[in-house]
Amino acid sequence: MVAIRSLAAILTYLIGLCGMIPLFPWLTTFPRIALVAGLLSGTWQDRRGNWPLKPWIQNIAIVPVFLYYTLQFSRANPIEPVISVLAIMLAVRLSGEKSVRHSLQIYALSMFCLASSSLFDLSPVFLIYLGLLLFMVAVALVLLTFQNQDQAMTVSKPDLKRILFSGLLMPIMVVPLLLLFFPIMPRTQLPLWHFLSPPSTRMTGYSDTVEPGSQSSIAESRTLAFRAEMSRQAQTQPYWRGTVFNRTDGIKWTRSAQVPAENIEITAQTVSQVIYPEPSAVHTLIALDRPTSLSLYSVKRSPDGVYEMIGAAGSRLIYTANSLSSGTVAQRNSLNRLFYLQLPEQLPARVKNLASEIVRAGKDDRAKVQFLESYFRNGGYRYSTVDLATGNRALEQFLFEKKMGHCEFFASTFALLLRAAGVPCRLVGGYLGGEYSQLGGYYLVTDDKAHVWVEVYIEGSGWERIDPSGFASNAGDVWKASGSRSFMHRISLVFDSLNHLWNRSVITYDFEQQMKIARHVGSRLEGVNPTKLLSSFVPYLAGSLLLAGILFTAARSSLFRSREQRILHRFLQTIEHGFDIPAGVGGVGLFEIASTANNSHVSDFVDIYSGAIYHDRRLTDAEYLRLQQILRILKGVKSKIP
Question: 303 partner at 20 to 30 Å CA-CA among 93, 205, 477, 545?
Fold first, then answer.
């Protein structure tokens, strides 16, 4: 026999863990300690069977904690106080006695804690925890129903299996409804709690300035920046455009908001991509270089091909972009050359001398670019992220002394020298490369792919992309194509594809996606005959209803019995196994059983049970407990039939 109370307590702890574990990494130290202490204290008291922590003591202990975190609440910090209070309340309830009421409170607090964890990370793991919690809560509610009727109730293993089946049946029957309502329920453009505080964000691999010389080394990060769903490109290392830097003080490059008009020509076929950026504090939107259009509400489009989101950043987005990927974009209108030739008042003497050499060597802008390209290729420059030049003379040191730096050094010096030689140009910040997932059909781009290159304006051609980092003597080693991948790497790509599927199908599913599905379904239904369709579904519908009726009848008859029916069923089973007397349906009656068994305990059971049932009343609590005691005695009694 299995005690209902003990099984319900075990499930209560497991439900508490389902709410604790996803939220635990995002909590501060005190709520973490409280959760661990509450869990250990509760299990220790459960084993002892003694509960010195009374409910009134726990309620008083929560009051100062609630007041403290209420004072911490503000518009700038709305989330941390709330989740801390939820975690501490859950810890307090876990440390107390698991009565029916307190168990229900633990279930509710666990659900709130799990929901709170989605403010920080809404990954597929959240769905696993949610599924486990819902299934366990369904089973626990059934157990609590029995526990509420009788605190000391025990059930046999067959009855326990039926109880567990009944509990699991409820969430399983709800799954089809979830699948039905998910695609059709209304969607908001932003999360409902987004106005309080954006989700946890990370900075992307590039910033709103380019400042070589600010650090002596650069640490690479493999943090995911975005995914781009598209066909694989012929270009091994595709360029992803983010922002444009058009002003410089000789060291730092920044972006001026006042950008001259550009009327570009779209003569080639554009490449379409669906971009899934990770939540970020940056407003710039990434697309394959160079984007011509982008489908997203509240977007500011600049003439130089930069797209920025208007309003608060940090939410998970999805948008479609169309791009010209040739690397050269023609411009119909005339160029504002003065804007793209801006230079600081003072330049180092050696930089001026090199610029003068470029002017003398080149008859036109293209010849000047080719001369500077040759200068970098043959100058012994190396690409490196360590031992970098720093300070105000960093670019001069890179050009003439160290000859070693990363993309910001190459692009900044290249553009600075071109402007000094009279060639219009600008810097472009974004990403270079990415790993293509054949399984998911998308490029996976991480922060270590952040990159800066140069766009040069050539009269008669337009804006041309030039990447000075590619002129480094070790460029082939830095950007060489990846060879064979290990088994673990392939496994990681599989998991990333599943994560992408989750983000695409669940996280970023919004009103726009609903409209696309509705239009698709509408076009498919145009040629459907309703009468024929309905007749084909009738057999399936009838079979489903019949199966549901059978399951409901079986569950109702075996699980939702009154306690009088349950204890009588246990008594008849005991008589059959212990006394070899046929009982139950088709067997002898209660008084015949008492006479045949010739056992005082059997007679006592029959007298108490018949005294209630045959007088049209229910068993009292005292009678029910006495009958349970008799059954425990009869379990070891052998037949005394003469």
Answer: 205
Whole-number Å distance between alpha carbons of 640 and 638:
6
Cα dihedral sign, 407-412-417-423: positive
C-alpha–C-alpha distance, residues 472 and 487, integer Å: 33
List all residues 6 or more positions away from 151 whose beta carbon is below 8 Å from its beta carbon. Answer: 5
Q: How many CB atoms lie within 10 A of CB 588?
A: 15
pLDDT tens digits, 359-389: 998 889 999 999 999 999 999 999 998 889 9
Burial class (CB in 10 A: 0-12, 13-18, 19+), 124: middle
Amino acid, res. 538: V
Structure tokens at 590: 């209660």
The Cα angle at residue 102 between residues 97 and 103, in degrees rounded to 5: 95
The per-type count for the chain, helices as H runs and strands as E runs, is 19, 21
- Is residue 564 within 8 Å of residue 623, measured between CB atoms? no
Domain spans of the chain, in order of start: 2-181, 224-488, 563-634
From first CA to last CA, the distance across the chain in angstroms is 30
Residues in the chain: 642
ω into 47 cis (within 30 of 0):
no
Q: How far is CA 348 from CA 250, 354, 355, 392, 396, in A?
A: 9, 10, 11, 11, 7
Nearest to 285 by CA among 262, 260, 267, 302: 302
β-pairing, 271-277 vs 2-3, is unpaired
589 phi/psi in degrees, rounded to 5: -85, 180
Q: How far apart are CA 110 and CA 449, in angstroms?
A: 40
Separation CA 602–CA 598 (nearest Å): 8
Cross-sheet strand order for the sheet of 224-229: 291-295, 319-323, 271-277, 224-229, 442-446, 435-437
Comparing CA positions, the residue from 35, 31, 193 lying closest to residue 120 is 193
Please determine, for residue 542, whether its predicted confidence score (pLDDT) is greater than 80.
no
State how far the Cα of 288 lies from the Cα of 235, in Å rounded to an integer: 12
Residue-wise pLDDT tens digits, 506-538: 655 555 555 555 555 556 656 666 666 567 667
**Two structure tokens written together for 423:** 């060639």
Cβ-proximal residues to 607 (8 Å cutoff; 6+ apart), any chain: 594
Q: What is the CA radius of gyration of the chain?
A: 36
Distance CA 615, CA 534 (A): 54
What is the spatial distance between Cα 44 and Cα 42, in angstroms, rounded to a whole number?
5
- Taking each helix axis as running N to C, give the angle between helix 365-377 and helix 349-361, from 0 to 180 degrees, rounded to the nearest 10: 120
Nearest 5 degrees, angle CA 438-CA 445-CA 331? 105
Q: Which alpha helices (H) appear in 2-123, and where do they start and end?
A: 4-23, 29-48, 55-72, 79-94, 100-117
Nearest to 142 by CA among 162, 171, 163: 163
Q: Average pLDDT of the chain?
A: 82
In degrees rounded to 5, what are phi and psi of residue 434? 130, 155
